[in-house]
Amino acid sequence: MYQLALYGKGGIGKSTMAANISVALARKGKKVMQVGCDPKHDSTRLLLEGKAQPTVLEYVRNTPIGKRKLDDLIMIGTDGVLCTEAGGPEPGIGCAGRGILTTFDTLKKLGADDLEVDMKIYDVLGDVVCGGFAVPLRGEYADGIILVTSGEFMAMYAANNIMKGLGNFDTGSPRLIGIILNSRGVEGEEETVRRFAEATGTEVIAVMPRDGMFAEAEGKGHTVRETFPDSVISQSIDSIAQRIIDVSEGKVQCVYPVPLNDDQLSDLAAGREIRKGESPIPVRDPCGGCSGCKRSIKDSRIMMSCAAYGALSAYMKVRDYAVVLHGPESCLYFMDTSRSKSIVELYDRDVFPTVPTHNVRCTMMDDAVSIFGGVKYLEKALKDTIAEGHRKIAVITTCMPGIIGDDCISVIDRLMKQNPGVDIQYVPADGDITGEYNDGFMMAVSNLVQDIDVDVKPEKNLVNLVATSFFDLHSKPHVQELERMLGSFGLKVNCRFLDETCYDDVRNFCRASIDMLLNDTANNREVYEHIRQRTGREFFPIPLPVGLYDYEEWLDRIGSYTGMEQQAKDEMRRVEEQYDSFIMNHKERFAGKRIIIINKLSFNVDWLIDILLDLGAELPLIAAQSSARRKKVDLVSRHMDIITADYDTDNFIEDVRDLKPDLIISDIARPDEGIRFARVGKIGLGVRPTLDYAEYLENIMRLPVEEGWKKGALE
Description:
Blueprint: E1 2-8, H1 14-26, E2 32-37, H2 56-62, E3 75-76, E4 82-85, H3 96-109, E5 119-125, E6 144-149, H4 153-168, E7 176-182, H5 189-200, E8 204-208, H6 212-219, H7 224-227, H8 232-248, H9 262-270, H10 307-315, E9 322-326, H11 329-337, E10 359-362, H12 367-372, H13 375-387, E11 392-397, H14 399-404, H15 408-418, E12 423-427, H16 437-448, E13 459-466, H17 476-487, E14 492-497, H18 503-507, E15 512-517, H19 522-535, H20 548-562, H21 565-590, E16 594-600, H22 606-614, E17 618-625, H23 652-659, E18 663-666, E19 676-679, H24 688-702
Helix pairs in contact: 1-8, 10-16, 13-15, 16-19, 20-21, 21-24
C-alpha cells in the first residue's frame, strides 16, 4: 500500500484536489481510501454526492470502546473509494491536533491497516504546525507528500513551513513529489509559484486553472473528474494520479526540499531574485543528536520532575487544602509514587480505606477529554470537593489542559461566586510547560503567601522556619535538637513554611518575630522573597546552623537578640571543646587525602568544606552543579573563592582522572573509576551530625576500593 499526504493552507483547495485524485486513481484500477484530517470534515463530501459522513471523533465520543466497529466509520464513495473523516472538537475547545492522533489510533485498532487498499490519501490542514496535524508527515503514514498552493504569499508560506516539518520527520528517503498550483487568478501567479518551487528544489507537477467547472461539479456533489471526464482539467488530474503511481512503483524519484529562510521569502514576495540561502536547513536527527542513547546531565531538555508536581508538593504540605489536579490519572499516579508519605484519594474512587491525610483529587482526563476539552470534568471535581466541605482548594493543571487551552479560570471564578467563603487558588503549571519542579513549587508559594494576615502582631518568643524542604527535621533526634537549640533561648516554632502545616499557621505567620531560613540556599531565599514582598519582613541573617562555624555565628546573633549572651558563650565553649577533640582524634586519617566534592545547587555544603579542611584534607575540586533550566540562580556559600559554580558534569570523568582523588563526595552518578565514593546530602543541624558524617567518610576510606565479592573473593 502506498500512502500519500496532501498538505496546504486552509481553503486552498486540498479537499477538492484530494477527491479528484482519488477518483482518478480509482479509475486507473487502484483501490483507494481517503482520510480527511481537517476539523471541517468536508474532505470526502464530493465522493459521497455532497453528503457529510459521521466523523471518527464523534464516534469515539459517543460509542463505548467495546461497541466500536470499523464499518461504522467508513463509507463507500465514487468508484469504490473508501471514505473516512477525523472531525474535530467544538471551536475554541479542546485540541484538534490531538484529534488527528486519536483518529489514526482508533482506525488502526479497529483494523483499518488490514483493509485491501492500494492507495491511502490523507487530506491534511497545512497552516497549523502542531504535532497532531504533523502526524501524516511521519514515515509510517506518508510515503509521499504533495503540496497544494496558490500564488498568494500566505499559501506559499504555509507550503514552506510544511517543507520544514517534513525535514523534522526525515525517513532517510526523499518524499516530496511536488507542488500543485491551484490558481486563484493572482497576477503573475504561475511564475511566482514556479520560482518558489525552483528555489526550494522541487517542481510544479500540475497547474489547475481557476475554472467554473469546479463550482458546477461541486454544486452537484461530485468531482470534476467524474462530472467532466473529458475536460483538460480531468486530463491534468489524471497526470497527477499517474505521477503518484509512477512514484509508488519507483519509476520517478521524490526530492528533499530546501525550505526558504525569512530573507528568501521576502525576496519571493517582493518579486526579487531569490538570494542564495546561507546553508541548507539540516535534517533533524530523530534521536536528538545523542550518543549511544545517553543524554548529557546538563541537557536542558531533561527534566527530573515537572512544575505541576512541584505545585502539588507545595499544597500537600498544607493539611487543610484540597488539591484538584486537572489532568490524567497517570500524572497523579507518578506524582503520588514519588511521595512515600502521601495518601491519595482518587477522585470518584476510594483507593485507600483509611482516612486520607491529604485531600488530592484528579479530574481523570482521558484521550477523549484531551480532544473535546476538560472544563466539565474540572467543574464536577470542584463541585464535589466543595460539597464535601472543603473551603480552601487549589487547582493545578498538568500538560494536557495547558496544551488544549482549557479555560479553567472561568470555571473557578464562577464557582467562587456561587459559593461564598470558598477560596480556590489556581496554579496554571501546565505540567512541564511552565518549567520544572522548583518553578511549580514557587508558583504555589506565590499563592500561599497571600493567605498570610499582615495585620497580625508579632510575639518576641516565636520563630518561623522557612524552606522548600524540611527533610532535616523529619527525624526525632533532629527535632529534639532543634527544640533544645531554640528552647535554650526561650524560643519556639510558630510556622514551618513550607512543611506539614495548616492554613491557620500560614495565616498567623506574622505572629513570629523572627523568620529563619532552615538552610541558606538559593531556593529558600526565593521562597522568602515571596514572603518579603507580601509582608515587608526580612529574614534572620543566620540560618539554622550546620557545622561549628555556622553554629558559633548563630549563637552569637541569637544571644544578642534574646539578651542571653552568657548562655550563648557557654554553649559555644561546649561545642568547641567537642569539635576540637574530634579533630585531634581523626585528623591522621584525613591528612593529605585528596577529596573531590560535587553537589547540586539545592543545598549548602560549607559545613563539609570546613570540617575537611580542619581535618587536613586537600580539596582540589569543589563544584556545584545547577539545574540546566535555572542557570542564573546564584550559589550561596562563604567559600565561593574555591568553588566552581555551574560545573559542567561532562568534564567529571576527565577531572577525576587528572586529579586522582582518594575520595569523591557527590550526589550525582558514581563514576566507574575505581575510586572510593560517598554520598552527600542534608544531614540535620548543629555540630554533632557533621562529626558523625566525618566518621562515615573515615569508615569508607578504611574499606577497600572494591568489595571483596566483586573480585571473586568468595570463590
